[in-house]
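Good morning C.,

I know you're traveling, so I'll keep this short. The sequence:
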Amino acid sequence: MAREDQLIERVSRQFPFTGDGLKVGIGDDAAVLRPAPNKEYIVTTDAFLENVHFLRKVHPARAVGYKAVARATSDIAAMGGRPRYFFLTLGLPDSCTETWLDGFLGGMAHAARRFGMLLAGGDTTKYPSVIASLTILGEVDRGKAILRSGARPGDLLCVSGTLGEAELGLQLMQRKLHRQKRWTRLLRKHFHPEPRLALGQWLAAHRYASCMIDTSDGLSTDLGHICKASGVGARVCASKIPAVKIPPELRRKGFDPLRMALHGGEDYELLFTMPRRFSSRLPRTISGLRVTVIGEITREKKIVLIGPDGISAPLQPGGWDPFREKA
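The tokens, ready to paste straight into the viewer:
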């Protein structure tokens, strides 16, 4: 059985103690940060729980650690910020304090390096299952944070990347098809999501986006968050949604690309609105990432999906909601 000081030492070995702006990090009662001039902090928290967000017997420890950081960092991307520091609260059973923990921390450290962050502190405790709570601090130029509440009627509705890829990976695992080598490549986004930091920062720097959110809960649900915060509605064209490409064999098994694109969560793409006057200036790709116009914002406070057949119907939120009753 590991002692708490031994766990903290294990964590410390994976992460540098101090860096740019971090005067005091792991090992003291609290962190001491030095704010950069003309910047504002963006702060977000995220819980990552065994048997809710991942299965320890199925998901590799390294992938769990990477994803814990990536999903929390995506909230910083959604506001146009640059991630700087994070704090980790970790609860572990005795069986996860050695080999599993090393894998988890290795994945977390890899993500932190990739996204340019330093671990500034946190807490550890014993718990029957694995719980990880992360607090991320990011920076953005003063006055340039992109909020959910800025969408206006007539704005174009845009999304990055491809939607439904993470849901495809999840469904392959749920149906126990993930062990087949031919489908391994389809699990990438489920295991290793990529927060769209470069795109978020580009949109903030150019002031093109009037509002933005990441697709953590699914397009149908996250679009609802934008519309509620902005007091608007939206019209979405199904044929324009960049849905995941599904092999014919899986389509025959009932895998539905449009449904996955609309309601599948954890893609962590950026869903944003943009005044029409900027449409000619928006590149089709930014930092190698495709950007697609999928609809527009409307004055009427309803969200409508125009189907492939041209028929309009209300788009109900069908994405992730931990408190929604299961059918």
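Safe travels,
E.
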